[in-house]
Amino acid sequence: MNKIILFDGECNFCDRSVQFIIKRDRTATFKFASLQSDIGEKLREKYQIPKHLDSIILIDESNWYSKSTAALKICKNLNGLWKVLYPLLIVPKPLRDIFYNVIARNRYKWFGKKESCELPSPDIRKRFL
To answer: 3-125 sits in which CATH class?
Structure first.
């Protein structure tokens, strides 16, 4: 089963993060959906993901992960040295999420909001739900 990443489709930083993942996910392990899309909403319902949660979410099998846990589990599957970050999961989640939360709270102010979406190439488009 593919792993699904739900992301904020209006956030420039989130969009760049998705592009970053795509470049380093050579085996196409991940599929993507915007939190704001119909499929994003359906996946939230199916996996009982709280509506107020607007961070990156990784759905893997029957589990879902958010914030720094999702980011580190994603890193584990990327090509390159990103795998070395995975052991940071031993750090308690509240400590890991401090840094994540600072970026998340300021993402629109620092990186802006998207007015429209770029159309990816057909190969990349297949990876979006």
So the answer is: alpha beta
Each residue's pLDDT tens digit, 90-105: 999 999 999 888 988 8
| Spatial distance between the Cα atoms of 24 and 94, rounded to a whole number of angstroms | 27
Given a contact cutoff of 8 angstroms between Cβ atoms, the answer to whether 53 and 59 are in contact is no
Cα four-point dihedral sign 65, 34, 127, 87 = negative
CB atoms within 10 A of CB 4: 19
Predicted TM-score of the model (pTM): 0.86
Domain boundary assignment for the chain? 3-125
pLDDT tens profile 2-40: 799 999 888 888 888 999 999 999 999 999 999 989 999
